[in-house]
Design goal:
Elements: H1 2-10, E1 29-33, H2 40-45, E2 68-79, E3 82-92, E4 99-103, H3 115-126, H4 143-164, H5 176-187, H6 189-200
Helix pairs in contact: 3-4, 4-5, 5-6
Length: about 230
Amino acid sequence: MACGGILFRAFRRSEPQPREFQLPKVDPTMQILHPFAGSVQQYLGQLADPSHCRPTQCPQCQAKDPLTAHGFYLRTIIDAAFDGEIRVRRYLCEACRRTVSLLPEFALPYLRSSVTVIALWLLARFLPNSPPAPPTPPPPMPYQRGHFWLRRFRTQAEALCVALAALTKPAAAPDFNHRALAMLQSIGWIPAHRFLFAGLRAHLLGWPPSLTPDGRRAALGPTPAPA
């Protein structure tokens, strides 16, 4: 547990990203990763069945009962071949009355662009001659947004190297930025995101300050009445 605490502290705080999703003023739902692998279009095609990938227990109170389908919320996603709204399914725990949303693995919490788009931008910035040209080029990013990703990645690079050492041997590199990129390429960006988010509750580019260390706003209990 001490090691985990060091790891979470290593994922340093980040400022809100320009023109991304507004952060919640309260913690309305806990996000977990949808156990689904595929494209945005394939993800949209399997949403009709609420029993598909339904959580079998609550990740918040640990009640061992299947959760109840509780509708959807809409969010946008920018991917190499998709730019629009997707639905994210929500479930309700009847025991603790809190909700859980199943975020598709190609999406990062509170960022509009997909893991793949962010990966391609960072690779083009750090390793312009190494990544092969994708079959569908990613959409152009505003200068401010791309460089915000760059600042966040540089802040997180050392902690990413520490965390991802559980999956692959750290690569020889001139600095943590290039080492983290090499490790992400070796593992795969989406498998690495799944490991970080599902296993460590760590964000690939770091949680905003209000959501550290695990992506949920801290809830304060009621103040006890004076004796």
